[in-house]
Design brief:
The relative contact order is 0.09. A hairpin with a 2-residue loop joins strand 15 (about 200-205) and strand 16. This protein is of the alpha+beta class. Helix 5 (about 340-365) packs antiparallel against helix 6. It folds into 4 domains: about 1-125, Sandwich (Immunoglobulin-like); about 130-220, Immunoglobulin-like (Sandwich); about 225-335, Immunoglobulins (Immunoglobulin-like, Sandwich); about 345-395. A 5-stranded mixed beta sheet has the order 2-9-8-4-5, with no helix packed on it. Strands 12, 13, 15, 16 and 17 form a 5-stranded antiparallel beta sheet that branches. It has a 4-stranded antiparallel beta sheet with strand order 1-3-7-6, with no helix packed on it. The N and C termini lie far apart (about 110 Å). The chain is built from 6 helices and 25 strands. The protein is elongated. Bound molecules: 2-acetamido-2-deoxy-beta-D-glucopyranose (7 copies). One 2-acetamido-2-deoxy-beta-D-glucopyranose (NAG) binds near residues 46, 47 and 92. This is Cytokine receptor-like factor 1.
């Protein structure tokens, strides 16, 4: 009993422990108590019977012990006293580990002191990884990402290796640069071959098994992406209440590598989540948005797709969208300033709107998008319209 109190007083009273357990080293002697099996790796849904054996010199009876799993006391009904110094617990239908460092199965004396612990690693053998996709930023790397194929394989430590070889004469190689903010991705940055197809796949393995994904084949030149356009500015088009002009700069890499580009613009109302996309912008670096609501804030983004890289016929991969840029259209009231007859101004407002609608119908039908030709015509048309309204209002005001 002297030994017992000596041993136990040197054990720290830790109720929450993170695996891997260092409990035993916290005690002066490592053979005070032992849990069997130590740190097992098990399949989800399997059953486990673990035992806690205590040194007879401690003078403790096994029936006075209790078990915890992740700090929660397990009910007595799961225990069996195998001998005066050996207590077992049976867990049926094990859940996946909460963390890859394992779940804490701990044996305590009646005061709650920790006598011994074991880490349970519960998961599944890996399934084939899925959704393997790759892209190349400015042809300077080849980055691939994938998703684990099965539930439960990520609950225990699982190694994923991206492997690749050049078709025809390649030797199998492993991607090494996993240092990404994104999990399940890897970048190949050296010895890139721009004109030879790559075969790429993922191998997953853990202590319960291993799996190899389907192989994808690709040419780097077909999966090129670039940075989003920079210097995006959005401004008013004079007093035109339903238009905004968007300007941007081509990503520098486009010049360095003689890519061409096509662009897309998307815009939305300040308080809406619905984006409208203009995808026929072509390779210009400015564009006019038309048919907008007067006096309204719009958010605008632009993205870029490098095309025709080294003569490749395939489109590349769209860049990220640029950071949103906001601008507001002018208020429609300004158009009507100079009018003092509310009735006639209301009439002219609705007349103008009807005509506008007709004009836009015509524009969309004949030259939707960024055709500068139709925009020029439209501007001229608008100026004419505004002049005629002013004239009408001036004629009308003496009457009002
Ligand atoms: C686990 O134990 C239950 C009884 O508690 C039994 O029905 C089941 O078959 C066992 N499962 C395995 C995988 O052994
Ligand atoms: C405790 O009991 C279990 C189950 O019978 C057994 O496997 C284990 O060896 C025992 N431990 C000791 C130290 O006797
Ligand atoms: C598994 O999780 C369920 C729900 O959280 C729980 O009721 C059950 O006791 C757990 N099983 C084990 C063996 O821990
Ligand atoms: C398995 O791991 C995932 C995250 O990796 C976690 O969200 C989930 O809760 C774990 N499953 C169980 C049963 O703890
Ligand atoms: C794989 O991609 C498909 C389609 O994009 C998606 O529905 C699915 O959720 C993805 N699977 C995983 C495991 O991410
Ligand atoms: C846009 O593409 C046309 C041919 O489609 C080309 O003539 C023109 O130079 C390109 N403009 C820019 C800015 O790349
Ligand atoms: C112009 O018409 C719009 C709707 O068509 C209306 O909301 C607005 O109040 C009108 N403006 C004037 C000055 O009448």
């Amino acid at each position: 009993n002297e030994l017992s109190s000596l041993l136990l007083s040197s054990c720290e009273d830790i109720h929450v422990t993170i695996c891997p357990l260092l409990i035993v080293s916290l005690c002066l002697f490592s053979d005070v108590a032992v849990i069997y099996p130590q740190d097992p790796v098990l399949r989800m849904g399997s059953n486990l019977t673990a035992s806690c054996w205590i040194h007879p010199d401690l003078g403790i009876h096994a029936s006075s012990l209790f078990w915890t799993l992740n700090g929660q006391q397990l009910p007595n009904s799961l225990y069996r006293v195998l001998s005066p110094t050996n207590l077992s617990v049976t867990l049926a239908g094990l859940n996946a580990s909460r963390q890859t460092s394992g779940d804490n199965l701990v044996c305590h004396n009646h005061k709650g002191h920790i006598l011994a612990g074991s880490c349970l690693y519960v998961g599944m053998p890996p399934a084939k990884s899925v959704n393997l996709t790759c892209w190349s930023r400015n042809t300077k790397d080849l980055t691939c990402s994938w998703a684990p194929g099965g539930k439960g394989e990520t609950n225990i430590s699982t190694q994923y290796t991206l492997k690749y070889k050049l078709r025809w004469y390649g030797k199998e190689k492993e991607c090494e640069d996993y240092t990404h903010t994104q999990p399940y991705s890897c970048s190949i940055t050296r010895d890139l071959h721009l004109f030879t197809p790559y075969e790429i796949w993922v191998e997953a393995s853990n202590q319960l098994g291993q799996a190899t994904s389907d192989v994808i084949t690709l040419d780097i030149l077909d999966v090129v992406t670039t940075d989003p356009p920079s210097g995006v500015t959005v401004g008013r088009v004079g007093q035109l209440e339903d238009q905004l002009s968007v300007r941007w700069e081509a990503p520098p890499a486009l010049k360095d590598f003689l890519f061409q580009a096509k662009y897309q613009i998307r815009y939305r109302l300040e308080d809406s989540q619905d984006w409208k996309v203009m995808d026929d912008v072509g390779n210009q670096t400015s564009c006019r948005l038309a048919g907008l609501r007067p006096g309204t804030v719009y958010f605008v983004q632009v993205r870029c797709n490098p095309v025709g890289i080294y003569g490749s016929r395939k489109a590349g991969i769209w860049s990220e969208w640029s950071h949103p840029t906001a601008a507001s259209t002018p208020h429609s009231e300004r158009l009507m300033s100079g009018s003092c007859d509310s009735k006639s101004s209301g009439d002219s407002n609705s007349t103008l709107r009807r005509e506008l609608k007709q004009f836009f119908g015509w524009v969309r039908k004949h030259a939707y998008g960024c055709s500068s030709m139709s925009m020029k015509m439209y501007d001229q048309w608008r100026v004419l319209m505004q002049k005629s309204h002013k004239a009408r209002n001036q004629v009308g005001s003496p009457r009002g």
